């Protein structure tokens, strides 16, 4: 059913709560992990408070060091998240859009029990001025939750092409609800067409298979972002979290100059106990291949999205409703291929 296939053993230790993985067979060379975790810009948001208040900050570009600087001063009159305790634990996070992955996020420290936090911190990006001027700055404020279920408190988006760079003073800006582009999915990164199935141990006969298996069939991806005129040279990475080692890592071949690549690639992870399915997460990410570095295009996470793995709070157990439903259907319909078309998430 596919032109390439990989099988890898995913053996869980119930005592250590960490997986030990040994590769049985693979047609691909093992490559070191570039990133152990990817997150949607809103993936950790479990809150439902309305945006309010203001944020004070200043922007500057250091020509000598080729560095973009965001001086985050303070916030006022933020929304209260925990009404019973009358508290919020806010922090500020920034991204450069549209390619959040390449520039990464920056964030301030967390200020506890206040709706008027004072930061006086500088968030820095090493970036050429010409590249910066085609970006937008997304600055958002969040309530920090110990379990990782953070709440969105408001944001502001600034077009840096039209910014007055002679203005280096601190200014106040009203925090707004989520931008319509983020809410309505205008920041479209493509969709992945795939099938998955779970084969319980012994379900095909005595000791066949000897351990549970998760089969992942990556069929194709449509409407990928095109980062350069020549097109996209894309491939898909796969991990089964919590393991991000070389042995867990598998990838497809690179499909060149195609924003609608067909991979038709199957990966099999064995060593699964049925109870492990609620604590593990299959992470599939799409990358644009270049000689010096690979650029993230989008990804999905298949799991129960509980925020916990073996009783430990983890930020990667953050599946969307669609991803959770897909995983749950696989768990309930064993030995059957479950097909889905899932949107890639931005970072």
Describe the structure.
The protein has 347 residues and is mainly beta. Helix content is 7%, strand content 41%. It has two domains: 40-182, C2 domain (Immunoglobulin-like); 190-344, Immunoglobulin-like (Sandwich). The model is unreliable at 12-46 and 180-186 (pLDDT under 50). It has helices at 100-103, 129-132, 180-183, 321-332, and strands at residues 4-12, 19-26, 54-62, 67-76, 90-97, 106-107, 118-126, 136-143, 151-159, 171-174, 191-199, 212-222, 234-241, 250-251, 262-272, 281-288, 295-302, 308-309, 312-313, 338-343. The longest helix has 12 residues, at 321-332. The radius of gyration is 22 Å and the shape is globular.
The share of residues in helices is under 10%
Return residue spans where pLDDT drops below 50 for at least 5 consecutive residues.
Answer: 12-46, 180-186
Terminal CA distance: 32 Å
Q: Which series of helices and strands comes N to C?
A: EEEEEHEEHEEEHEEEEEEEEEHE
**What is the CATH topology descriptor of the largest domain?**
Immunoglobulin-like
Look at the helices and sheets and give the structural class.
mainly beta
CATH superfamily of the largest domain: C2 domain
Largest sheet: 6 strands, mixed
Number of helices: 4
- Total domain modules: 2
Summed over residues and divided by their number, the pLDDT gives a mean of 80
Strand elements, count: 20
**Radius of gyration (Å):** 22 Å
Q: Can you name the CATH architecture of the largest domain?
A: Sandwich
Domain C2: 51-173, 188-317
Protein name: Synaptotagmin-like protein 2
Biased composition (Polar residues): 1-12
Keywords: Cell membrane, Exocytosis, Membrane, Repeat
């Amino acid at each position: 059913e596919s032109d390439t296939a990989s099988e890898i053993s995913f053996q869980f230790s119930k005592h250590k709560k960490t997986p030990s993985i040994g590769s049985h067979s693979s047609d691909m060379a093992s490559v070191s992990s570039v990133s152990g975790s990817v997150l949607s810009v809103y993936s950790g948001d479990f809150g439902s408070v309305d945006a309010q208040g203001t944020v004070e900050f200043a922007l500057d570009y250091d020509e000598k060091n080729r560095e973009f600087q965001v001086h985050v001063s303070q916030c006022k009159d933020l929304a209260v998240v925990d009404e019973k305790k009358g508290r919020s634990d806010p922090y500020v996070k920034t991204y450069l859009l549209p390619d959040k992955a390449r520039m990464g996020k920056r964030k301030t420290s967390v200020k506890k029990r206040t709706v008027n936090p004072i930061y006086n911190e500088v968030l820095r990006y090493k970036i050429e001025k010409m590249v910066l001027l085609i970006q937008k700055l997304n600055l958002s404020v969040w309530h920090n939750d110990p379990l990782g279920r953070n709440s969105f408190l408001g944001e502001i988006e600034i077009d840096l092409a039209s910014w007055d760079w002679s203005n280096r003073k601190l200014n106040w800006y009203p925090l707004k609800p989520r931008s319509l582009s983020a809410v309505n999915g205008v920041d479209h990164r493509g969709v992945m067409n795939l099938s998955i199935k779970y084969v319980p141990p012994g379900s095909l006969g005595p000791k066949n298979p000897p351990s549970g298996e998760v089969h992942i069939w990556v069929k194709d991806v449509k409407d990928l972002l095109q980062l350069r005129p020549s097109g996209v040279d894309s491939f898909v990475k796969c991990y089964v979290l919590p393991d991000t080692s070389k042995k867990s890592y598998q990838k497809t071949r690179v499909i060149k100059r195609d924003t609608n690549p067909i991979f038709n690639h199957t990966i099999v992870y064995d060593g699964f106990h049925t109870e492990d399915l609620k604590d593990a997460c299959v992470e599939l990410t799409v990358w644009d291949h270049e000689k010096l570095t690979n650029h993230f295009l989008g990804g999905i996470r298949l799991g129960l999205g509980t925020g916990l793995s073996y009783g430990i709070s983890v930020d990667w157990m953050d599946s969307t409703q669609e991803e959770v439903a897909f995983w749950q259907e696989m768990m309930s319909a064993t030995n059957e291929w479950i097909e889905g078309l899932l949107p890639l998430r931005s970072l």
